[in-house]
Amino acid sequence: MKIEGVTAIVTGAGSGLGEATATALADRGAKVALIDLNAERVNHVAARLGGLAVPCDVTNAEQGEAAVASIVETLGAPRLLINCAGIVLAKKTTGRDGPHPLDAFQKVLTVNVVGSFNMIRLMAAACETLEPLEGGERGVIISTASVAAFDGQIGQAAYSASKGAVAAMTLPIARDLSRAGIRVMTIAPGIFTTPMMASLPQEAQDSLGQQVPFPPRLGKPEEYAQLAISIIENQMLNGEVIRLDGAIRMGPK
Q1: Residue 253 lies in a domain
Q2: Of which family is this protein a member (predicted)?
Q3: Number of helices (H), then strands (E), in the chain
Q4: What's the domain count of the chain?
Q5: pLDDT value of position 199
Q6: Predicted model pTM
Q7: In a domain, 252, yes or no
């Protein structure tokens, strides 16, 4: 799909992978709607890019519906959705404080899985009303999993479960939406320089980067964005999860 002139939604666009992807889309002429729970942050990024800031809790059905309706009215129906909104949690199944809090487990799944699916269903409903482009294509959806979906470490039960679900629903949703000409893909990043990673001491960041076989460093958000752009532009990519990890396979801890 050609990116110039199309409406694109990016969730988690206030920072990290989402901000980098929104920037790459705007640079290529897309009309970008930036969704994030942090209103101040997403307004700042949207102002820089000339995009539309839409503060929204992606896990909330009503807020999601209102956000997409606002985007359609302001920018037109979306052809692109990149789901980057998500949270992490490090908590063992049992520990000194007892069993893993169930509400914390549920929250991670709600944000990472329900939030992603909420935006997918709403974007797809708006996108399938559009006229098809070359080859019958109407839109592209990209979600974000993690290598933790496959190589979950100690304390990652909730996070791995959520990202595993995002990976697992890629193919069935791609099959569901194939009749409408909407492709569905997922990127599973390895260790990237996100705001969460930036909170660690530089020594710890360097140590993590050295665990990557090649290149021996942390991934850059711009590299995630670059892959997202490639997926959008390559019509044969559909129903697949792509690891973006420098060949790392995470150990138990």
Answers
A1: no
A2: Belongs to the short-chain dehydrogenases/reductases (SDR) family.
A3: 10, 9
A4: 1
A5: 65
A6: 0.96
A7: no
Helix (H, G, I), strand (E, B) or coil at 36: strand
Q: Are 100 and 158 in contact (CB under 8 A)?
A: yes
pLDDT in tens, 102-136: 999 999 999 999 999 999 999 999 999 999 999 99
What's the distance, Cα to Cα, between the start and end of the chain in Å? Answer: 40
Question: Domain with 154 in it: what CATH number?
Answer: 3.40.50.720
Distance from C-alpha of 140 to C-alpha of 122, rounded to nearest angstrom: 13
Of 30, 130, 142, 159, which one is the catalytic site residue?
159
Residue 82 has pLDDT above 80, yes or no: yes
The residue type found at 252 is P
- The answer to whether the beta carbons of residues 152 and 91 sit under 8 Å apart is no
Alpha-carbon distance of 65 to 68, in angstroms, equals: 5
Q: Is 250 among the domain residues? A: no
Domain membership of residue 223 (yes or no) is yes
Query: Residue 183: which H helix or E strand, with range?
Result: strand 182-189
Give residue for tokens 């070359």: 134
State the residue for tokens 């052809």: 79
Query: Domain containing 205: what range?
Result: 7-244
Tens digit of pLDDT for each residue in 156-203? Answer: 999 999 999 999 999 999 999 999 999 999 999 999 998 877 766 787
C-alpha angle 35/186/179, rounded to 5°? 95
